[in-house]
Design a protein that fits this description.
Layout: E1 7-13, E2 23-26, H1 41-53, E3 81-87, E4 94-103, E5 106-114, E6 117-119, H2 131-134, H3 143-160, E7 163-165, E8 180-181, H4 196-206, H5 209-216, E9 223-231, E10 234-241, E11 248-249, H6 255-267, E12 276-278
Parallel strand pairs: 7-12
Antiparallel strand pairs: 1-2, 1-3, 3-4, 4-5, 5-6, 8-10, 9-10, 10-11
């Protein structure tokens, strides 16, 4: 995986468990969150789900969480949530900021700031959607549209491509234990791992096969081959061990081995998402 950082800093205020004082967090290419239950790890990741939803439907991650009022900090009356990020663009860093609140159980975006340009409600086509999603209100846009069009395009692409892996199912009945379908994409890896075989097969074309095997042998030292077999409209993963003449199919592998294959497919990706969020709760 390339050593790069999409977001250098994020500031959260009145958002979930982040209070009115706000909290600025500086990010590195790799960030590991460790903390006790209830310390706000999942809330931190939720902020990036909000960013991912901005170019499409901002309510998409909010509805399952109980509605907009559940995303506003409970420590003050009529709070306004603020998310602000400093993006590490190839040309120069720039800021993006969005503030929103709940109004009669509806999301109301109060302000967006792209670089130094403030975008009030008069510039949006909908109070629930960002200008990144819908563009500018043509009646009010004027020169402002030209000024931030390039930034809008960049933000839309980068936010949309943020990847999330939170829905871990490794036991009996999981998609990682079953033969997988051949009509799924080779990239990116689906959150449920339903295309893991195709992703690994594609990696074997893009990377030296020995590189993949060496990484796999770090946790499976007896492995001699990692094979992907496509037949009968299905994709199946097999491991060949030194002491066995017949390969072992994925359903017979341990949960930990399949978990490692999943992470390996993510982290060896030569064309990764601009930002990957991997949440691993206690798995057993």
């Amino acid at each position: 995986m390339k050593n790069k950082t999409l977001i250098r800093k994020i500031n959260l205020q009145n958002f979930l468990s982040y209070g009115s004082q706000g909290e600025e967090i500086e990010l590195q290419p790799l960030n590991v969150l460790i903390g006790t239950n209830g310390s706000g790890k999942s809330n931190f990741i939720e902020a990036f789900r909000i960013l991912k939803a901005i170019p499409t439907d901002l309510m998409a991650p909010i509805r399952p969480g109980g509605g907009i009022n559940e995303f506003i900090w409970k420590g003050a009356v009529a709070s306004t949530a603020v998310l602000e990020v400093v993006l590490n663009n190839a040309e120069q860093d720039f800021n993006y900021k969005i503030s929103f609140r709940g109004a009669n159980q509806r999301l109301e975006i109060l302000l967006e700031v792209i670089e130094q340009t403030e975008i009030g409600k008069e510039y949006r086509l909908s109070s629930e959607q960002s200008v990144i999603a819908r563009g500018f209100n043509p009646k009010a846009a004027g020169a402002k549209t030209l000024f931030v069009n390039q930034e809008l395009f960049y933000l839309k692409n980068q936010f949309s491509d943020i990847g999330f892996y939170r829905d871990w199912h490794l036991g009996q009945g999981s998609t990682l234990r079953k033969p997988q379908h051949t009509d799924l994409p080779e990239h990116p890896l689906e959150e449920d791992g339903s295309n893991l075989g195709l992703v690994l097969n594609d990696l074997q074309y893009q990377l030296p096969s020995q590189q993949i095997l060496e990484q796999f042998k770090k946790i499976y030292p007896d492995a001699e081959e990692l094979n992907i077999k496509i037949y009968g409209g299905t994709v199946q993963i097999f491991i060949r061990e030194k002491s066995f003449s017949q390969p072992i199919p994925a359903p017979r592998l341990s949960d930990g081995t399949r978990h490692y294959l999943f992470l390996m497919a993510l982290l060896l990706d030569p064309n990764p998402a601009p930002l990957l969020c991997i949440e691993e709760p206690e798995l057993g």
